[in-house]
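Slide 14.
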Amino acid sequence: MKLLYFISLLFFLSVNGQSYTTQWYNMDNGLPQNSIKDIVKDKYGFIWLSMEGRIVRYDGSNFVEYKNFKLKNLSFGDFSGSIQKDSIAVFNASEKDVLMISHRSPHIISSRLISRSGNRTDNKIYKQIFKNNFTVRYVSIVNSFFIHLNTGSYYFEKNGIIYIEKKNKKRTEIDLTFSQSRLNRLFVHGDYVFVADAENKKILQLCQGKYSYINAPSVYTDPETKIYWQQITGQVFIISHGKIYRSEFSDGKLKLTYLLEYKDIDKDISGAMFYDEAARKLYIGSSIHGLKILSLSDFSVSRKNLPYQDEVCYAALPYGDNSVLTSEGIRYYQNTSERLYPAPQSYDKRYILEDNAGNLVYRENNSIYIRYKNSGFTKYDSISFKNKELDGLYKSGALYMASFVSGKGSYLYLFKKDHFKEIERIIPCKDNIDAVLRYDKNFLYLGSSGGIYVYSLTANKVVKLIGKGLPIKQMIRTKEGSIWFTTYNRGLYLIKDQKVIRVPSDKNDFLANAHYLLEDKNSNLWISSNNGLFKINKNILLQYIKDPKGDLTYYRYTKKQGLLNNEFNGSANPCAHILKDGQFVFPSMEGFVFFNPENVKTYYPRLEDIHLERAKIKGKMIQVKDKLFLERGYKNAEIYIDVPYYSDLENIYLQAKLDNEDSSWINIKSDKTFRLANIDPGTYNLLVRFLSSETGKFMYKTIPVEVEPYFYQTLIFKILIAGIIIFIVLVIVQIRTNFLRLKNKVLKNTLVHKDKELLETNNKLKNESDYQKKLVESISHDITTPVKFIALLSQELNQSQDLKTQKKYFDSIYKTSEQLYKFTLSLKEYTELYKQENTANEEYSIYDLIETKRLLFEEIAAQKNTFIYNFCDHQLRTQLNKNILLAVFHNIIDNAVKNTSDGEITITSASTASHLEINISDTGNGMSDEQRIYYSGLFKKKENDEHMIFKNYGLGLHMVVQLLMKINSEMTFHKNTPKGTTIKIFIKI
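Slide 15: predicted structure.
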């Protein structure tokens, strides 16, 4: 056994810590092709890869392929041109066609715009050197290889070197023998050309046509050294036995900067290398294996690398200024580890502390082991505890403690200083104790599965329970005195005023399993968890807890930043340290993670690094300039957020949304794509935001988005439809209103009609009465004169004895009686006079009507020595009601006969286009002026029956007036010359 210990003591582990992480891309995980010819980074931060048949752009997350070029030869080669001028050129294999990469996209240009001939006019074959690596072949069929520099050009031909100045084209042949086989060790810094001479162990330097030899580190001239140079980037790499250096030239000297050691560099590299200083990444391109990215890490993960042993680490103690020591006897440095003493496999990794003498104290097999420092930790003692299970060891504020479990009870033993055999006090606890922190001289914080019990040393009892029900994992005091504690799956908390405040978690809630935290000099908190290491400024966190406005952002470090495993460990005591040299140490599932917090970088993009210029609509890729226009009927659209970002995308909280009312920020995934679907027509703004600094400040970028509507989705159409609907509603309302109004009108008309019927019935009854009265009066009036005349003749006949006279009287009586008889035959029509129609079906002569009445009154007029003359036109005819006209003529001739003696009555006629005019003139007594005015005025009042108030001028003419009104005719009264009256009757045709 002693021999085994001795051998173990001599065992030293010299393990190089991992200083970089590796990402490998090929056709299986995103790269469209495995063959890479060249690599360059443009002025916008995008990485470009030259490949067979395509050019590929890489932004840190995705590869964008450009291949649809109308070229016969798509085998692209090396990059050339100027990065600063945004003009990166790449020729195809035939060097007849060239692509120009500008403004973040490639396009074909004329090869005549780029010179490849070296400005020589002879018939030799020239080839320009853009890049030099250990796969380039300088074949003899090329007469001259040349390099263009700012000051001039070098031509390597005929085992010599020719220099041509750029300004004056002066040609200088350098007095030096130089074979083309030496070109594979050529590289350039600025205007200086260097060639490593492995045989003479010197460096040939060419500058403006002159040469010299300079000294340089031996790595340059080592025959095993390989040199890589690319003109467009100006980068020179020196590769020696797997170690990669960057070459620089300043103050007239060549200098090397060590990057990393990569043993497989000889196998992987075959044509392309590029080192991104900003992101600290080395890109290696292979012609068969794809792209390998070596990311230099700010973290160093130290492992023991022992066979058949895992690398899971828990508790450790600071040992020296720059290392930690575990209970298994392994001392971990940043990049190496060594065993200080042997330890059996049964050791406990979770608890270790140091007593006052520097001895190691840890738990093993339910015992406390003490390894003595003065023996090199080879000698040890142990203290066992019977009937109790040793659960944990703690040291806080000069107190040494151990937690035990006995049955269902849990106890904390306080030892007398560091004498673990002397128990000073036993503190019972309801729950298992997992962490202990001495708050001050009087109070102990006991972190248990049920919260934090505050125990008073002076009162010898628990005085308070903080965070009831929370399973406590670790308790930490930061430099200003704040107490923080982590829990099992319940997050991180802060104790303030004896109350717990839950610290807001990260967006993925990984901090629900936070382990421990350390505070650096800049007040940044570094929090280990089951899924990554988190960083946040303590002042920003406390301010957010006090006033939770805006967004709280954490910066998360994972395997992408150099960790070997994202899972840290925290169920141990102690489980994190700040070493004297300033390094932080956290245990993980795969070694101890060392880092200097001041050297660990954070990466944030700038506003100008965000580009919204590509979109895919209906499966077709389009370029977006000032606005994204989506045609009507589109189903979905993808907007690509191009940002060259080569760290963890989640750390910049890249989000996007449309500025409509219901939108919320959407986290952008690694594909950097924002998808639009089922967006209503209209104009929107697409907002993209990202974290720009550790202060939590967001920056925003905007691009308008217009969705074209269908015609039925336009505002005009909607207004039109709304107008039509309103119009239809109004029409319906109007129709309904009109219907109701019509119905009301019908009802009203019905009532009115009924009223009128009643009124008409009443009027009819009254009119019948008036009619009967008028009829009787008319008949009486019309027969009065003949009857009176017959009566007078009868009287005269009775008194006369003369036969001739009697005969005359008899004859007059006969004629008058005959006419009266004829008149009475028409009394039936007379009775219907006011009810008859105005017109008849047949025409008749006006002359005949007048003649009928003349004969009736002829004998009566003759007795008064009056003659009646009928001078009417025999051709004058009319269809007006005969009975009405007979009644009219009867009354007027009757009045003329009554008022005329020893005179004559003349009846004439005339016609116009609209009227028949009948003139009845007599030479009788005549009418007074008052009577003429009165009767003429009756026709002016014919529209208003209320004014038909008859004066006592006689009934006959009043009846004539009414009859003429009935047939729309008129009558005027005039004074006859020399005496009498003329009545003019105007009968409407």
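Speaker note: The radius of gyration is 65 Å.
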